[in-house]
Design goal:
- Its cofactor is Zn(2+); Mg(2+); Co(2+).
- With about 325 residues, the chain is of the alpha/beta class.
- The protein folds into two domains: about 180 residues, Isopropylmalate Dehydrogenase, CATH 3.40.718; about 120 residues, Isopropylmalate Dehydrogenase.
- The protein has eleven helices and twelve strands.
- Strand 3, helix 2 and strand 4 form a beta-alpha-beta unit.
- Helix 7 packs across helix 8.
- The longest helix is centred in the middle third of the chain and has 17 residues.
- It starts with 5 loop residues before the first strand and ends with a helix.
- About 50% of the residues are buried.
Length: about 325
């Protein structure tokens, strides 16, 4: 177990973030110390709370309640209805969490879901999403999104763009960066000494020799060949429809797919509740549950904390693999 606790940001307090944080503490207690950054008034009524002044108090506090590092918000958080008045505070909590983890006061950062439109409406949030804001705070140009569980680790090379835009966005440089970042993270954060990475093709049957598309020949295969020459263990381009069954998955440690759904459909089919969103390429560890704010069920006691618990556990394992900063 890392020496420092995990920092958990509150996310949008009108979503299910506060509820699943309380449920995660109820299950994990002091066995996996984390602290929640947010306004205690936004937690579900009756939540045992142990307010702390510093992260290093979290382990002791976790024996009696959810450790909370208070961050005052200007408005209540009605379930299912985000208040624009709270938008800047949601953003500030993320920045505070990054500051704590970069100072070594937290071993990793786990983030509860935010609602991008609410942040844009309430605080003119200039970033496409959570990940891009974290990259800006860290001062890095390129980060990689991984969806991970015990059954599969998969990275989409392109993410939130229309399918028609993927071929143009799928450049050699993007693939070089994605594969190098993924390879380095598997070593540093997952403790895999010699990672094996499977690389999907873009087209059906990986283009079938150019009959169904030439991206494999002109873009993907040359990058794979160049990185193999650097010593990376890469397989592909592989036909995406045959690389995610159980026998195929045993042959690699992670897969890199070419677009969003090509990556996310397999892992959400295999492990919908246990999938964790991991941001690779940051100078700190960041995980998050693989779901959104779920405004439609917020405040009803129905939210499943499984993905958040998986995100906290994965952050804990990654911090242990990475070791002291």
């Amino acid at each position: 177990m890392p020496a420092a606790p995990i920092a958990l940001t509150c996310g949008d307090p009108s979503g299910i973030g506060p509820e699943i944080a309380a449920k995660a503490w109820a299950e994990l207690g002091a066995r996996l110390p984390f602290f929640w950054i947010g306004d205690p008034a936004h937690l579900p009524p009756g939540t045992p709370v142990s307010q702390i002044a510093r992260p290093d108090e979290a382990l002791r506090a976790a024996t009696s309640g959810l450790p909370v590092l208070p961050h005052a918000f200007p408005a209540p958080a009605p379930a299912g209805a985000p208040d624009p008045a709270n938008a800047q505070s949601v953003i500030d909590v993320i920045a505070r969490g990054v500051q704590l983890v970069r100072r070594g006061e937290a071993s990793a950062l786990t983030t509860a879901p935010i609602h991008k439109k609410a942040l844009k409406d309430g605080a003119a949030f200039p970033h496409p999403g959570h990940t891009e804001y974290l990259a800006a705070l860290a001062g890095v140009d390129r980060v990689v999104m991984m969806l991970a569980s015990d059954l599969l680790k998969v990275v989409p090379a392109t993410i939130h763009i229309g399918l028609s835009e993927v071929p143009a966005a799928l450049t050699r440089q993007l693939l070089f960066d994605t594969l190098r970042i993924t390879h380095a993270a598997l070593i540093r954060d997952f403790g895999i000494e010699s990672p094996r990475i499977a690389v999907a093709g873009l087209n059906p049957h990986a283009g079938e020799g150019g009959v169904m598309g030439r991206e494999e020949i002109e873009t993907i295969a040359p990058v794979i060949a160049a990185l193999r020459a650097e010593g990376l263990a890469l397989m592909g381009p592989m036909s995406a429809d045959t690389m995610f069954h159980a026998a195929a998955r045993r042959g690699y440690d992670a897969a890199v797919a070419m677009y969003h759904d090509q990556a996310l459909i397999p892992i959400k089919t295999l492990d919908f509740a246990g999938g964790v969103n991991v941001t690779l390429g940051l100078p700190f560890i960041r995980t998050s549950p693989d779901h959104g704010t779920a405004f439609d069920i917020a405040g009803q006691g129905r939210a499943d904390p499984a993905s958040l618990i998986a995100a906290l556990r994965m952050a804990d394992r990654m911090a242990a693999a990475r070791g002291p900063a």
